[in-house]
Design goal:
Elements lengths: L3 E4 L5 H14 L6 H11 L6 E7 L2 E13 L3 E12 L9 H15 L5 E3 L6 H14 L16 H9 L3 H5 L2 H9 L6
Parallel strand pairs: 4-5
Antiparallel strand pairs: 1-2, 2-3, 3-4
Helix pairs in contact: 1-2, 3-4
């Protein structure tokens, strides 16, 4: 039995969970297996979002996640191909990451997405070349778009809302926004 890619279904979660735990550990996260499994039970099997795993000899050895990404410049929804992960012992040796990315694009096309977006770090030249190769192989256009993504950690504000019930209402006022924009450099 060789390497294959499959769209993850709920009955395959037991096969996928060891890979998810490995990925979480690699990211430096503490793993709560019960909540992680509950999360995946909630997202697996949806039509808009999907996960594809690479399987070899009955073991999950790689994963890619695909979610809809609203993007009014191009289409109502764009397939956002993200969190490509290959088990450490197989990284870089057999093209599993490339296989997963290609499978994500192909499945996105099958589900009717007209655009797909992949993302990598600016200095990850192999991944940048991968996207160009995948586009050529699939016979589709590929445009490198310079963008910056911001990740806001809302946890301190959530804690503050718990301790100060009126804090959230204060955040939603035009007065706060006008004070922020009046500060130098606040809008750029």
């Amino acid at each position: 039995m060789g390497l294959e890619t499959v769209v993850v279904s709920k009955d395959q979660l037991d096969m996928l969970m060891p890979l998810i735990v490995e990925q979480q550990h690699d990211c430096g996260k503490e793993v709560d297996l019960a909540s992680t499994r509950t999360f995946f039970e909630g997202i697996v099997g949806q039509e808009a979002s999907f996960q594809i795993m690479a399987v070899e000899e009955g073991n999950a050895v790689g994963l890619v996640m695909v979610d809809p990404l609203p993007n009014l410049q191009f289409a109502d929804n764009v397939a956002y191909v993200h969190d490509v992960y290959v088990t450490e012992s197989l990284r870089g040796s057999r093209g599993i990451g490339a296989l997963l990315v290609a499978a994500g694009f192909v499945e996105a096309m099958r589900r009717g997405y007209e655009f797909a977006e992949g993302e990598t770090e600016p200095d990850n030249h192999p991944a940048r070349k991968l996207y160009a190769r995948m586009a050529k192989k699939l016979g589709v256009g590929c445009k490198e778009v310079d963008s910056v993504r911001y990740l806001l950690d809302l946890r301190p504000a959530i804690e503050r809302v718990r301790n100060e019930p009126d804090y959230q209402d204060q955040l939603a006022t035009p007065r706060l926004l006008s004070r922020l924009s009046a500060r130098s450099g606040a809008d750029g």
